[in-house]
Amino acid sequence: MENKIIIKIGASKDHVGAYADNCDGIYGAGNSVEAAKLDVMEGLRLFIKYNKENLPDILKSDYEIKYRYDVLSFVKYYIYSFYKTITNTFSQSDTKYVVQKGAME
After folding, report:
1. Which of 11, 39, 6 shows the shortest CA–CA distance to 24?
2. Could you report the per-residue pLDDT of 47-99, keeping only the tens digit for each?
């Protein structure tokens, strides 16, 4: 199929976002990849509904949806989440460390 709508999916510290890379005006977001995919499809449906008179050529005939992932944004998201979890764990800890005099010599 020639007509492909490329949906890019990326993660931030707040949400997972999705947008059509080759068709302006189509966006979505959610708390997970699946939620972002569902929301971007709703965005596509609404875009078509409210732009019937001025549809881009790519939407005037059959088209295929292709998803592409911004892998770097997901790596950053998981690093941030891991860091946040670790710092919260240690900052809430009641454990106190005592170093005896002479132990570090």
Report:
1. 6
2. 999 999 999 999 999 999 999 999 888 888 778 777 777 776 666 555 555 55
Token representation of residue 71: 């892998």
| Distance from C-alpha of 78 to C-alpha of 72, rounded to nearest angstrom | 10
Total Cβ atoms within 10 A of residue 71: 10
Domain boundaries, the chain: 4-91
- Other Cβ atoms within 10 Å of 5 Cβ, number: 19
Q: How far apart are CA 56 and CA 61, in angstroms?
A: 10
- Asked whether the beta carbons of 83 and 89 are under 8 A apart, the reply is no
Threshold 0.85, pTM exceeds:
no
How does DSSP classify residue 18?
A: E
CATH number attached to the domain at 4-91: 3.30.160
